[in-house]
Write the structure tokens for this entry.
Amino acid sequence: MGRYLLGRLGQNLVLLWLVSMIGFGVLYLAPGGPLSQFALVPGMSQEDIARIAAQMGLDRPLPVQYWEWFTRLLTGDWGRSYRDSQPVLHVIGSHLWATLELMIAAILIAVLLGGWIGVMGAIRRYSFFDYLATIGAMVALSIPTFWFGLVTIYIFSVKLGWLPPGNRYTVGDGSFWNYLHHLIAPALVLALVEVAIWSRYMRAAMLDVINQDFVRTARAKGLPERQILFRHALRNALIPMITLAGLQMPTLLGGALVTETVFTWPGMGRLFLDSLGYRDYPVVMGILMFTAVMVLLGNLLADLLCAVADPRIRLD
Amino acid sequence: MAQVAAAAIEPVVLPPPTRHRALRRFLRHRLAVFGLVTIVLLVLLSAFGPYLVPYDQLFIDIRNRFAPPFVSAHIFGTDPLGRDHAARLFNAGRISLTVGFLAMMISIVIGTVVGAVAGFYGRWVGAVLMRIVDAILCFPSVFLLLALAAFIKPNVLTITLIIAATSWMEVARVVQNQIRSLRERDFTVAAEMIGASDTAIIFRELLPNVIGPIVVAATLTVARAILMESYISFLGYGIQPPMASWGNMLNNAQQYLTSAPWLAIFPGVMITLAVASFNFVGDGLRDALDDRLDAQ
């Protein structure tokens, strides 16, 4: 276990290093690089720009710049926002919780609803319900998240007036119920794709398990079907779902960006878009790196949890 | 040999297909056929639609702003500038479908080359290439796309290129997997022994055997590319007005949601139809090309 952990950590560090190179590359693709914002200031001369470049260390060879940027990244110095000079990590941190709240709510919905649809589909395989779920999942995966958000707002906010059309809470009313009320629509919108994915994988995992020997043994022992399905089969079918959860990070983060835009949700995705608008490269790069690290951590965590949950998986 | 024999025996061992199984085949087939028909219709509509509508997509008619759909000659209504919504919708189809197909072709080429090289040369080259693929996949694609989009001058070509740049990794993985397993097979070893060059083996022996998975991946990539174009255009970094794409038509539809909901409905339906159709066809192709399906 310890050795495996070290190996996985090593692999992830290599990936992280590659990720940082790609991130740095993207930053330097920018026309004018990090200097472009200063070029817009009126009265800025070539000499001024050269001086700023020297002050920022941008006149040194690229590998040196990369190395400095990367080592700073590791020590937690992610630079400062061009917009308000706040440290990048601090800016990200102040928007992180709103995004996490949305993502956790969506995952919960996906696990419960998607899981239920998947299990039902597997138990009543090739039934009408199963076909409906299959087609429904494919359609759900084809609907643009932002458009589903617009439709949700139109139906539940404009027509029915049940849910607020955006924001995280009503100003002046910070009660738990107020937060929850605002969370419902964006969480459902973000969950749509996840429910579809979850139901498909849950169905496949359940079908895998149902055909295994220990389930047949349980049947032969004469256990009630309910107990077989939920005590024996489902518990084992849930193990591969842990891996799936880890792999959903990129989809969730991408979906969150779009959902946050439609619902004016003050999360990391909105921050990313705003920063793009301001050409605030340190924050843009910071978020790009931060999401990549979240994706890596998600995969690693899922593998470890999977090993803990399933004693058959020997990690070495 | 053993595999061929097993494949020949299996259908006999299986129980006869039940009514439901037939229904499933039928339905799956039906969905793929539905998808294909819809794609053809969408392509025809985008190609010839603009000639059928009596309005130009850019003609501004301020007296006819926000005309509701299905009541006047503007069958899908008009937008906030009084431009004909139908004309814009069909022209947008041209852009969105073109971006989808082009991005697919580019990412298939990149993905196939990277995957084939990584699968064929295994060890070092393969490991390095596939780790790079893993690393790019660590970035959520919407974030990566937007970061790239902010650095370019957005037009149809550049948008297509950045979508392709973020879509080839899955193809590379599929091709690499297949090539790696085919590389050990007798026919590859035989070709090597005759003295065929690496490129000849890859292009003549290996890749023809991977066509199936590549075609499936290509279909799904079109769906993904259309979706991605709509995402970044909706967020304002994709196709720029006055040129219309299905995504950017939704760009400011949100503020008219109460007064003119049709502005949001039609483009969204078109995107969903197009993406779902390609997904249906891809799914149908995957089932049709998968021999193992009969054994289930």
